[in-house]
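Morning F.,

Quick status update on the modeling queue. The single chain you submitted on Monday has been processed. Sequence for confirmation:
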Amino acid sequence: MNPLNLFDIERLARERLAIGTADYFGGGAEDEVTLRANRAAFEEIFLRPRYLVDVSHRSLETTVLGTPLSMPVLIAPTGFQALAHADGELATARATAKAGTVMILSTFSTYSLEEVRGEVEGPLWFQLYVHKDRGLTTGLVERAESAGYEAIVLTVDVPVLGRRERDVRNEFVLPPDLRVANFDITQSAGLHDAGGESGLAAFHRGLRAPQFSWKELEWLVAKTRLPVILKGVLRGDDATLGVDHGAKGIIVSNHGGRQLDGAIPGIRALPEVVDAVGDRVDVLVDGGIRRGTDILKAIALGARAVLIGRPAVWGLACAGEGGLTQVLEILRDEFDTAMALTGAPTVGAITRDLIA
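Structure tokens below.
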């Protein structure tokens, strides 16, 4: 079957992956209410198109934190991508660079941040968790700086790991031939043998720093010359506090429904966050984006750009670099069509009055 859309690509990917791997990438926390709501929230938003607008020439280009993008779509940080395809994050970096956009590399990548940087010359951002070991945290930041990454994306919604019941049932662990490349063997304890639980849960429990607070955010901002972007914000007041404490960008996200089940969908939280921070920083959003119209809805509600996570992995599982390239091209074509059909020849013309 030649996939027509991202749903087709997901179906093909699930056929090719082991059940434990497909569940790891596709699953959410507990009853997966938020996982389903992320998608449903987009389907509940309707558009009010403008007509008799000259859309014969359209530009999908934009910028995020001053970085030019060919379209307002970035690749969200997703761990263990070599589970989907042997080239993992290397393939993702190549496809993203060719598409003219930005990949955010996960702390839990199966290729090191230096290896990924060596694949491409285009912009890369590094996603960071703050660990109990401050030396480990600062070491990752220093490595990202030295390797030429352009931003640090600090995930703030994992003081503890959400209970992902699919992973617990499957006793999800990494196969012995895969590694968490940014950590040494002792730091990766548990991921290959979890003793009857999720290996990811065991790994996180040994590293996480649940006491991390706004004061520590100031510490991190002071430790790096790179802009720090907060990922996992769902409230306007938290967004304001983040900017006040030095954040240069906000990603509205509920971690793909993998953390707090029952958390508000990112697209529903987006307008409050945008209104709270105004034009002080760029705001992005992820969670449930599967169509070009979803991108348009997010931009209309104030996002500078969107992030996709699972669709990128499904593309890798189908055909490696080429599969992700196809995902991005499908989204590009759908978004271009949505712009034409709503009377928006440029990204700047996508305004909130397009939302019904």
